[in-house]
Design goal:
With about 280 residues, the chain is of the alpha/beta class. The longest helix has 16 residues. It is built from nine helices and nine strands. Helix 2 crosses helix 3. The chain has a nine-stranded mixed sheet with strand order 1-2-3-5-4-6-7-8-9, sandwiched between helices.
């Protein structure tokens, strides 16, 4: 069942975004759609403690040639945040596949940022029929590439975090100190429960402990683009080279950008992505 939440919403003053809710047994999933419905589909998957809004600056650059679909993963953004449901990566991936089914999408290029790339990988494992190609943006290939944060974890007694704690946590998501962190991203983190925050973080670690992404993607056998900001402060950017073992993969390093190039420099991020999708995207069904 699809429930509208009030019709179109304006995205950044550009074209109207169609915002709706998909009612799943495990909780409602918030969905945004932009661009022509008969164009090749792109599914954009956000990272941990984020939401569909992290892709806002990129969307206008992609809708000229794509049907752009974004979802808030369970526990994030405007989706449900139940304490009694699984946040394991395969379960998040299964829900993403169900969302595409409900929207009538038979083929899509999946684009994931950070841990969203982990979810995208799992979708390709579970539903290879749906996935024509994958693009991962600053998604670490293995736990060996992770850069441990300098600040201590936020405990349940400190939840919700203070503004200072929020900014400290989010700051590593950008390339340089003093970067103006979009307020809506802080709102997304503030809006999570401590359970969903910690459960989704643990889920990513668990999935990557069971197998590196290059190993998984080699088995999947889908075309792969890896985009990596060279100044990433969460994952070693040199680790992007690990993806070259995946047959036919392409790795693009973006100098001067950090963990969130989709926010720091949307046009530079969109350029290699659009070149990739021009080759691999499938016309709308």
């Amino acid at each position: 069942m699809t429930v509208s939440d009030g019709g179109p919403h304006v995205n950044g003053g550009a074209e109207a975004t169609e915002s709706s809710t998909l009612s799943l047994d495990e909780g409602d999933i918030h969905v945004c759609q932009d661009g022509p419905r008969d164009a090749p589909a792109l599914l954009l998957i956000h990272g941990s403690a984020s939401s569909t809004r992290s892709w806002n600056p990129m969307v206008p650059l992609l809708t000229g040639s794509h049907r752009v679909i974004r979802i808030d993963l369970l526990g994030h953004g405007r989706s449900a945040k139940p304490d009694d449901r699984s946040y394991a990566i395969p379960d998040q991936a299964r829900r993403a596949g169900v969302a595409l089914d409900r929207l009538g999408v038979e083929h899509a290029v999946l684009v994931g940022h950070s841990s969203g790339g982990v979810v995208a990988t799992a979708v390709a494992e579970l539903r290879p029929d749906l996935v024509t190609a994958l693009a991962l943006v600053n998604t670490g290939p293995s736990l060996d590439a992770f850069i441990a944060p300098e600040s201590a974890a936020i405990g349940p007694s400190q939840w919700p975090p203070t503004d200072e704690e929020l900014r400290r946590f989010a700051s590593a998501g950008f390339s340089r100190a003093g970067f103006q962190i979009p307020e809506e991203l802080l709102d997304d983190l503030r809006g999570m429960t401590h359970h969903t925050f910690t459960a989704t973080m643990r889920a990513t670690l668990s999935y990557m402990e069971q197998g590196t992404l290059p190993d998984r993607l080699t088995v999947v056998g889908k075309p792969l683009l890896v985009i990596f900001g060279e100044d990433d402060r969460r994952w070693r950017s040199s680790s992007a080279a690990d993806y070259r073992v995946v047959p036919g993969s392409r790795v693009e390093l973006l100098p001067g950008l950090g963990h969130s190039p989709l926010l720091e420099d949307p046009p530079r991020t969109a350029t290699p992505l659009l070149a990739f999708t021009a080759i691999h995207a499938v016309q709308g069904d």
